């Protein structure tokens, strides 16, 4: 199909960006909004976004004019009659979207492909609202659409495979990487990302570590572009909670139980950036108290001992603070177990650890050039607990036949800005290390979802450190 003209219904956060993406690829766009006021907002959105690209030198004034001229703005759905494809980006409500799909089906020519940008609703149910279910797909863009390189192309059991392929080719023409997936809640990215974010909220709720410490651990210790609480505030806590509910309704897995803490934030109207306050933005946010350590004893890391000695600390056995790198739960109140992960030093405290020792250890590790992350002495501490379960989810997703290793890696790189996809990360950490970490987590929490995925276990047993790729 040539895709000479497309329709975009709803020109909010996503729709305006999607209209811009089509227009930039030289395609005529009819943008439809509910009323004149919303249409003006959509126009302003397009002008702002292309204006920014102009300021950054990514578009010339002439190119910007051409892009804007390709978009016709209207409040009449009838203007979509001759579109080759119509994509909707109206609010995430099944009844409203189903009504729109039924009307588009009546209005549009028989060959028009109808697409939805839904993040969590079943595409199959939208297809069923039309008389052309074989020509209905999900085309899931990421925010901001002009910047993010991924499009999840969602086919249902009734989608014509040719239509799916054409939409995939269209995504390539738009300069995006398409990932073909079936109609399962959350598709690839949200199905992997949201349970990990929800898990971070659970650790906070259980008091395993604090908000800033968990964010630091995942950003600096793993190299993710953003910590989970910053990301949740950006996504919107209500949206995150809703997606967790959709995932749980489909899977009934313990991994998908929405955190009660997330629910109480939503109930309190603290939705993140959109409401001005979520996990961040509390006026009570302030610096933590300080208690400088005087003497230190380091066990298990020559490098840490050297760094502290170079900073002028004398290593003595009867020190105020003992930093034990690795090993098992310490049995002295002065000893803090330390796990070094890149720039991050996790400080595990047990029921015996004295508060003075924790504060002293935190300062010492800062002086030694690490970002300290105080946490409770639980299996996996913060980084491994969050990361290994997240990676395990990716293995289970592949194992269930939902998506290929390449697609899952590409989706997480392009959709979430990861430097490495989950399988690349698994291989660079070492499959055996992750499998063993998951076994420890499972032994401690006994949650079925933390048991190593059977494929991971089998590969390690076979002595392999690589997933099978064609
Ligand atoms: N925001 C994101 O990060 C994101 C990312 C991927 C997918 N999505 C999905 O995209 C869709 C839209 O989300 P959004 O964040 O852009 O919402 P939004 O609220 O910013 O925009 C929705 C727009 O639809 C318009 N609208 C409402 N009813 C309409 C109708 N009957 N006809 C025409 N226009 C109508 C509204 O005026 C508004 O401009 C949702 O399905 C959402 O799940 C959102």
UniProtKB/TrEMBL annotation:
InterPro entries: 3-OHacyl-CoA_DH_CS, 3-OHacyl-CoA_DH_NAD-bd, 3HC_DH_C, 6-PGluconate_DH-like_C_sf, 6PGD_dom2, NAD(P)-bd_dom_sf
Ranges annotated as spanning the membrane: none
Domain 3-hydroxyacyl-CoA dehydrogenase C-terminal, chain residue ranges per copy: 186-280, 380-463
Domain spans labelled 3-hydroxyacyl-CoA dehydrogenase NAD binding: 6-183
Keywords attached to this entry: Oxidoreductase
Protein's UniProt keywords contain Oxidoreductase: yes
Pathway annotation from the record: Lipid metabolism; butanoate metabolism
Matches recorded under Pfam families: 3HCDH, 3HCDH_N
Matches recorded under PANTHER family: 3-HYDROXYACYL-COA DEHYDROGENASE FAMILY PROTEIN, 3-HYDROXYBUTYRYL-COA DEHYDROGENASE
Recorded family membership: Belongs to the 3-hydroxyacyl-CoA dehydrogenase family.
Record protein name field: 3-hydroxyacyl-CoA dehydrogenase
Origin species: Nonomuraea mangrovi
């Amino acid at each position: 199909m040539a895709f000479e003209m497309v329709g975009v219904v709803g020109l909010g956060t996503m729709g305006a960006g999607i209209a811009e993406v089509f227009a930039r690829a030289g395609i005529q766009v009819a943008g439809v909004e509910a009323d004149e006021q919303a249409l003006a907002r959509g126009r302003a959105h397009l002008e702002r976004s292309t204006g920014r690209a102009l300021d950054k030198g990514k578009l010339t004034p002439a190119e910007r004019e051409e892009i804007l001229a390709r978009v016709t703005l209207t409040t009449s759905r009838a203007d979509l009659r001759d579109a080759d494809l119509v994509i909707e980006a109206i609010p995430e409500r099944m009844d409203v979207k189903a009504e729109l799909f039924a009307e588009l089906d009546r209005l549009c020519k028989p060959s028009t492909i109808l697409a939805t940008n839904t993040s969590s609703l079943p595409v199959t149910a939208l297809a069923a609202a039309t008389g052309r279910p074989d020509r209905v797909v999900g085309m899931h863009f990421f925010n901001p659409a002009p910047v993010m390189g991924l499009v999840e192309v969602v086919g249902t059991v009734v989608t014509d495979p040719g239509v799916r392929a054409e939409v995939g080719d269209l995504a390539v023409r738009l300069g995006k990487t398409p990932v073909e997936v079936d109609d399962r809640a959350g598709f690839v990215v949200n199905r992997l990302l949201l349970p990990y974010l929800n898990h971070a909220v659970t650790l906070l709720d259980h008091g395993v570590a604090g908000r800033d410490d968990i964010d630091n651990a995942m950003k600096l210790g793993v190299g993710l572009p953003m910590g989970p609480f910053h990301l949740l505030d950006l996504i919107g806590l209500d949206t995150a909670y809703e997606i967790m509910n959709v995932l749980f309704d489909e899977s009934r897995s313990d991994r998908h139980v929405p955190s009660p803490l997330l629910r109480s934030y939503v109930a309190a109207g603290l939705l993140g950036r959109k409401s001005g306050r979520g996990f961040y933005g509390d006026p009570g946010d302030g610096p933590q108290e300080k208690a400088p350590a005087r003497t230190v004893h380091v066990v298990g890391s020559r490098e840490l001992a050297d760094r502290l000695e170079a900073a002028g600390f004398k290593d003595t056995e009867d020190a105020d603070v003992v930093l034990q790198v690795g090993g098992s739960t310490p049995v002295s109140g002065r000893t803090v177990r330390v796990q070094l992960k890149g720039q991050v030093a996790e400080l595990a405290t047990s029921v015996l650890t004295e508060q003075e020792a924790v504060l002293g250890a935190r300062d010492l590790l800062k002086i030694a050039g690490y970002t300290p992350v105080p946490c409770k002495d639980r299996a996996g501490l913060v980084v491994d607990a969050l990361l290994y379960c997240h990676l395990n989810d990716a293995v289970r997703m592949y194992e269930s036949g939902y998506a290929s290793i390449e697609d899952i890696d590409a989706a997480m790189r392009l959709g979430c800005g990861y430097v490495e996809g989950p399988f690349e990360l698994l291989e660079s950490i070492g499959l055996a290390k992750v499998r063993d970490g998951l076994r420890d987590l499972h032994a401690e929490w006994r949650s079925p979802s933390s048991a190593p995925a059977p494929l991971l276990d089998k590969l390690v047993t076979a002595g392999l450190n690589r997933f099978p790729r064609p």
